[in-house]
């Protein structure tokens, strides 16, 4: 899509070290010198097609391995002379590299890059932000065998990484815990300055360190990495920023695979669960209920409760931290109060960690005793955000704050076991974003009220990556002759976005009617089967539309499993290169989404599907609620089909509200938190839809709970957009042609 920067070579896609060739070693007598080149002890088998150390390395990148005070091995780049004083420093195992196996790695093929972004991220630090790159690693098994098997193994591993990186990389390895240089000691930092950087003092306050050892019962290293950052800062009277690898690089490839193992096993929940989900999102779920929050310290449980009670103070907030007149008390006090409030007909939210079934079962039993349904909401906050929140806390009722509190929170997070329906829950929800929290706050605040869902649904939906208008103009089947005029008129009436696709064969005309402020959705057509195809299609679409960037890129139809990964990686590249802001999909079932998510570095934020009262897709609503994916409805008006518009339930709501059938059908989606993409062919229809915005503040212009319940009760099923290729045997295909 653009010419590569000649200063930044293209990233090698290889993330596994399976191509490592045999390293033949010669164990020599242990050196006792202070500073001796030990590089020559490695004998390299150059018969491999992809050698770790290439036969010819640019002179500026050649390096030597040396010994420092019989305590450290360091890698010094030959000929590197620059005035940089900022360090981008990294641990090795569990940070730059991770393990493909469960046990301790003993072979090169046991390793892989943390994830596919590592090399590009480090290159940008060096090329664009003027950082030096350095690795600090404890390698206690080397001891003083500086040319032994273990030392040769580690050095070869780092040479492979340095060759892949193709940028100057310094390394300091502490070879024995007894020598005083092991992290968390600050001494390896001093070695780097003295031996790798020619005695130059680095600017600690402008530098940072990334490592995986942050403490907690599940950290066998005991927090040596975060301790190292703290020690360096204290030694230099400055603050050395610290990041976990997940915080800095995102989830590891292994974490994504593990997540995928869970996602792929997704099964359609019981009908009762989907009915409860429908009632919750539609605003007619009746109380009382018990809602238990699940999450470690810092996951946002108290914040959720504050926001919920701020919207509906009929809820009762119960926390063990404050149950005893504002002070910590016993769990039994929470149980007793919970049962009392439920018997009085009140909804309660229980603010405890509920990390496993044992902790949750106590409150599930309490709810069962009074015949009240119990819901679980998991706040699946990232560990880096947990740590940040807890570290900033002050005056926490239970004292979980500061550095000590972070360690406690990390231990708790490691013990989280996701709730299941076998525990007795009526509904389980999961969110990892602030936007998801806001949606669940809004949904639960409507319980036990007859008020319509008056959220700002008629303006936009806020997502982590983008804010998307709730109503976007569809352009499918929009004729070329009228497209520019219709889009221009829609813009003047208040439409904030346009949905396009190359297969609609009208992008040039649609683009003429748009302006640069309109939210722009573009699509990757099914014919694209490679990453290169994706970039070509997007380039053509942007050119036709007259834009340099799109807001959202959607995969128009699920790809075959053989090509999906390549296609999605091509879409991710489009985000990284700045041609689009966010990614999504179209026409994906829950099963197809479950297959896609494990492949993603950038997960889809939207799934655009056909949705109307004849095709509510409650299983997809439920799946997307568990994965922070916004549903967007194409064909929300059923293509104007008389069977849908004249359905008795639709007509009943039309009569009771005085709204047009189009408004009723659009509000049915919008008030359930689903964005819509209606297609309009006349100014009259455009104006009719825009009246929804003008009357958004009036409850009379919205559907009440009874209206939504009536529409949700429609039993007829019909799919209006049903291409034959979506009814095959592939895993992404729809199970049946819902067209009765």
TrEMBL record:
Ranges of biased composition (kind: Polar residues): 39-50
Domain of life: Eukaryota
Any one GO molecular function term: oxidoreductase activity, acting on the CH-OH group of donors, NAD or NADP as acceptor
Domain NADP-dependent oxidoreductase: 471-700
InterPro entries on file: AKR, Aldo/ket_reductase_CS, HAD-like_sf, HAD-SF_hydro_IIIA, HAD_sf, NAD(P)_OxRdtase_dom_sf, NADP_OxRdtase_dom, P-loop_NTPase
Keywords (A to Z) from UniProt: NADP, Oxidoreductase
Pfam family, one: AAA_33
Chain positions covered by the region annotation Disordered: 27-51
CDD domains named among the record's database cross-references: AKR_AKR1-5-like
UniProt keyword NADP, yes or no: yes
Family: Belongs to the aldo/keto reductase family.
NCBIfam families reported for this sequence: HAD-SF-IIIA (TIGR01662)
Name under which the protein is recorded: NADP-dependent oxidoreductase domain-containing protein
Naturally occurring in which organism (per UniProt): Fistulifera solaris (Oleaginous diatom)
């Amino acid at each position: 899509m653009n010419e590569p920067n000649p200063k930044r070579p293209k990233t090698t896609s290889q993330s596994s070290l399976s191509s490592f060739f045999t390293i033949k070693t010669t164990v020599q007598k242990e050196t006792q010198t202070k500073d001796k080149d030990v590089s020559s002890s490695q004998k390299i088998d150059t018969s491999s097609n992809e050698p770790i150390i290439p036969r010819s390395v640019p002179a500026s990148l050649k390096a030597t391995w040396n010994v420092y005070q019989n305590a450290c091995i360091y890698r010094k780049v030959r000929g590197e002379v620059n005035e940089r004083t900022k360090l981008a420093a990294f641990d090795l195992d569990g940070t730059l590299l991770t393990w493909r196996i469960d046990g301790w790695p003993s072979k090169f093929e046991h390793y892989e890059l943390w994830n596919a972004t590592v090399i590009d991220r480090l290159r940008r630090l060096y090329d664009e932000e003027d950082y030096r790159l350095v690795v600090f690693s404890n390698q206690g098994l080397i001891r003083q065998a500086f040319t032994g098997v273990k030392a040769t193994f580690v050095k070869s591993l780092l040479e492979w990484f340095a060759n892949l990186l193709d940028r100057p990389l310094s390394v300091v390895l502490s070879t024995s815990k007894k020598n005083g240089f092991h992290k968390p000691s600050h001494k390896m930092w001093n070695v780097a300055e003295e031996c790798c950087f020619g005695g130059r003092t680095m600017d600690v306050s402008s530098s940072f360190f990334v490592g995986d050892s942050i403490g907690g019962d599940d950290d066998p290293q005991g927090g040596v990495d975060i301790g190292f950052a703290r020690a360096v800062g204290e030694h230099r009277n400055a603050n050395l920023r610290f990041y976990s690898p997940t915080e800095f690089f995102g989830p590891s490839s292994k974490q994504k695979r593990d997540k995928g193992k869970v996602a792929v096993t997704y099964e359609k929940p019981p009908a009762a669960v989907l009915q409860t989900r429908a009632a919750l999102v539609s605003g007619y779920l009746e109380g009382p209920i018990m809602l238990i929050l699940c999450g470690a310290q810092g996951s946002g449980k108290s914040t959720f409760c504050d926001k919920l009670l701020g919207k509906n103070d009929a809820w009762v907030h119960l926390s063990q931290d404050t149950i005893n007149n504002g002070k910590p008390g016993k769990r039994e006090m929470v149980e007793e109060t919970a049962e009392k409030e439920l018997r009085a007909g009140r909804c309660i939210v229980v603010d405890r960690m509920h990390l496993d079934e044992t902790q949750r079962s106590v409150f599930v039993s309490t709810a069962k005793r009074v015949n009240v349904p119990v819901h679980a909401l998991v706040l699946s906050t990232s560990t880096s955000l947990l740590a940040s929140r807890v570290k900033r806390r002050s005056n926490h009722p239970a004292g979980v704050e500061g550095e000590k509190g972070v360690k406690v929170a990390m231990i708790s997070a490691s013990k989280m076991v996701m709730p299941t329906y076998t525990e007795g829950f009526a509904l389980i929800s999961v969110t990892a974003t602030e936007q998801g929290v806001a949606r669940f706050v809004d949904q639960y605040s409507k319980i036990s009220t007859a008020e319509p869902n008056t959220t700002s649904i008629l303006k936009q939906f806020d997502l982590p990556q983008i804010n998307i208008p709730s109503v976007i103009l569809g352009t499918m089947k929009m004729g070329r002759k009228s497209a520019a005029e219709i889009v221009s008129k829609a813009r003047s009436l208040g439409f904030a976005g346009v949905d396009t696709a190359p297969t609609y064969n009208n992008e040039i005309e649609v683009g003429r009617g748009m302006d640069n402020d309109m939210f722009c959705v573009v699509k990757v057509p099914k014919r694209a089967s490679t990453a290169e195809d994706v970039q070509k299609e997007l380039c053509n679409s942007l050119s036709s539309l007259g834009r340099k960037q799109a807001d959202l890129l959607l995969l128009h139809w699920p790809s075959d499993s053989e090509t999906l990964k390549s296609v999605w990686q091509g879409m991710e590249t489009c985000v990284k290169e700045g041609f689009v802001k966010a990614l999504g999909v179209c026409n994906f079932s829950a099963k197809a989404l479950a297959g896609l998510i494990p492949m993603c570095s950038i997960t889809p934020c939207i799934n655009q599907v056909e949705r109307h009262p004849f095709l509510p897709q409650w299983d997809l609503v439920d799946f997307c609620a568990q994965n922070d994916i916004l549903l967007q409805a194409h064909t929300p008006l059923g293509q104007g089909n008389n069977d849908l518009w004249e359905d008795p339930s639709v007509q009943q709501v039309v009569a009771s509200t005085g709204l047009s059938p189009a408004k009723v059908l659009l509000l049915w989606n919008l008030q359930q938190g689903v964005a819509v993409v209606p297609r309009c062919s006349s100014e009259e229809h455009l104006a009719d839809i825009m009246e929804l915005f003008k009357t958004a503040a009036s409850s009379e212009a919205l559907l009440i709970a009874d209206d939504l319940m009536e529409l949700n009760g429609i039993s007829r099923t019909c799919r209006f957009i049903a291409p034959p290729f979506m009814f095959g045997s592939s895993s992404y295909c729809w199970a049946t042609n819902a067209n009765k």
